[in-house]
Amino acid sequence: MLSQQETIPPVPPRLQVSLVIANIQKRRNIQALISTALAMGVTSILIVGQPKLELDPTSANNTIPLYLRKCLIPLDSEQDPNNESTSSTPPPRGKAYLQRFAKWNDCIAYLRQHAIPLAGVEIDARAITVQQLLDQIQTSPQQNETTTTTLALVMGNEGQGLSVAQLQDCDLLVRLPQYGVGTASYNVYVAASLVLQRLHQYQTTNAMNEE
Fold it and tell me: Which residues form the tRNA/rRNA methyltransferase SpoU type domain (predicted)?
């Protein structure tokens, strides 16, 4: 039983995360990003371009393993531009919604329509840490225990990072601190794994607090 001096700690807002895959060159990195996103419980995966990337589970093309393709729930944003599944209705456990866009601007228009802020992971002086991002979510005056915060995450290209256009379209930038000189930057799916794991940890803690 709580004493008069004690208070029940506030429950942090819920968080739903989408992963945007754009301008990633290597197929194995795309596969690793999809696998990591599914493992970390993202709500949706938004893929820009990549017309030859076969994700239909009924296809005999095994470029992307069947077990991954079976975990993706396609949503056709062109036929249903007002579809709000990626921002309001969580997918079944172990699955993620799949949205495909021909061009970067199409993806940005979709995110803007659904008021989903875009966070770019990049080495940049303006970038904040993942913990600072989570602190902002928890302390925002618009957020409370009944709020579901949505966030889209985009990783930079393997060689060049985020493009100028991508940087301009990001609502905020997130960085991963490095503590040695072994490499100039993390591999793209390693970086995604680190960020998504931290966000998933926040989601898990939130769920435990609600119980």
Answer: 98-196
